[in-house]
């Protein structure tokens, strides 16, 4: 019996022969791989600290200080001035209008590309355009809309020449509330397409087939199956669009200048300096914007996680 192999002891002996495991240390290649991985993400952390965390902490501290650096709450009391409240309200209205319009039109475009019986080349073309247009903003976008819908813009002149319709006789102006909202829709709609398309892809074909087999109509399918699955994604995307437009400054400033009193332009004036220069009030304005956009993004994250659980 002493010469017969002991299978159990062989398993035990081969399970723990490594000195590394008994010593409680990691192999050298594991440490090297982990170090290389951390080095790879270091540029992200450096960028986040320099351009996100430190500036945010700086303006939070500055919002509670006066020009001499003393602690004060006066900056937040000045936020209750009629001009400041009007700026916040106009920004909320522009953001809400562009978010609702972008969510509605973008959802229809995404549905047509994913669920509609369109040619196969439509979807990749739409997605490519959406990826480009969703990042097209700032001065180039403002200039494009002035050249298109300004008083002597291309579309304005074509309507007047061929349809004898003067767009500006209706009270419309590209420098107004609706002009800025329409400009924001240029990048809001493509962004909605990019966000809601994966949610539409998550609708399983078996759900539609089961509804048809049970005698359900298309309206019943959308009412009882598709929309309950999609609404967290759509609503969350609308909140993201709201935050996206609420924080936009370059497009609004290049398009309207100071003719439209929104909070980002007021913040720009306070930081850069004019007759109403109060840098610490600008910090308080920025902190209020952070709270609004933070709540919107928090709602988007919560609804996205809810949508993912629903699809599982």
Give structural notes:
By secondary structure, the protein is mainly α. It folds into two domains: 7-61, no CATH class; 74-311, MetI-like (MetI-like fold). It contains 14 helices and no strands. The protein has helices spanning 7-15, 19-23, 28-63, 74-78, 82-114, 122-133, 139-149, 154-162, 177-201, 205-213, 218-246, 250-256, 263-272, 279-311. α7 runs parallel beside α12 (250-256) and α13 (263-272) packs antiparallel against α14. The chain is globular. The N and C termini lie far apart (57 Å).
What are the main properties of this structure?
MetI-like fold; about 300 residues; disordered N terminus; mainly alpha
CATH architecture classification name of the largest domain: Orthogonal Bundle
- Average pLDDT: 86
Q: Sketch the major β-sheet.
A: none
CATH top level label of the largest domain: Mainly Alpha
Strand content: under 5%
- Total discrete domains: 2
H-E string: HHHHHHHHHHHHHH
By CATH, the topology of the largest domain is: MetI-like fold
Low-confidence stretches: 1-23
The radius of gyration computed from the alpha-carbon positions, rounded to a whole number of angstroms, is 28 Å
Taking the alpha carbons of the first and last residues, their distance comes to 57 Å
- Counting helices, strands and paired strands, the structural category is mainly alpha
Shape: globular
Q: Care to count the β-strands?
A: 0
**How much helix is in the residues?**
over 70%
CATH superfamily of the largest domain: MetI-like
Number of helices: 14
């Amino acid at each position: 019996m002493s010469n017969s192999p002991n299978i159990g002891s062989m398993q035990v002996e081969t399970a723990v022969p490594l000195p590394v495991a008994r010593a409680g240390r990691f192999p050298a290649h594991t440490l090297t791989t982990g170090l290389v991985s951390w080095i790879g993400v270091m540029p992200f952390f450096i960028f986040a600290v320099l351009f996100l965390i430190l500036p945010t902490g700086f303006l939070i501290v500055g919002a509670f200080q006066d020009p001499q650096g003393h602690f004060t709450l006066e900056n937040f009391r000045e936020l209750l001035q009629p001009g400041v409240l009007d700026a916040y309200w106009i920004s909320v209205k522009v953001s809400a209008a562009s978010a609702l319009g972008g969510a509605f039109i973008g959802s229809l475009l995404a549905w047509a590309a994913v669920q509609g019986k369109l040619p196969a080349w439509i979807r990749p073309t739409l997605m490519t355009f959406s990826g480009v247009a969703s990042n097209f903003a700032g001065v180039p976008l403002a200039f494009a809309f002035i050249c298109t819908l300004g008083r002597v813009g291309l579309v304005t002149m074509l309507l007047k020449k061929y349809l004898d319709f003067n767009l500006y006789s209706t009270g419309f102006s590209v420098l107004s509330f609706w002009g800025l909202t329409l400009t924001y829709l240029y990048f809001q709609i493509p962004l909605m397409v990019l966000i809601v398309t994966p949610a539409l892809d998550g609708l399983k074909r078996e759900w539609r087939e089961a509804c048809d087999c049970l005698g359900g109509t298309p309206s019943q399918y959308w009412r009882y199956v598709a929309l309950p699955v999609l609404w967290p994604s759509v609503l969350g995307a609308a909140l993201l669009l709201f935050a996206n437009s609420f924080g936009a400054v370059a497009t609004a400033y290049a398009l309207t200048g100071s003719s439209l009193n929104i909070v980002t332009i007021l913040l720009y004036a306070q930081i850069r300096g004019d007759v109403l220069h109060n840098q610490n009030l600008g910090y308080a304005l920025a902190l209020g914007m952070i709270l609004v956009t933070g709540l919107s993004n928090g709602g988007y994250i919560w609804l996205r996680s809810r949508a993912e659980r629903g699809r599982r």
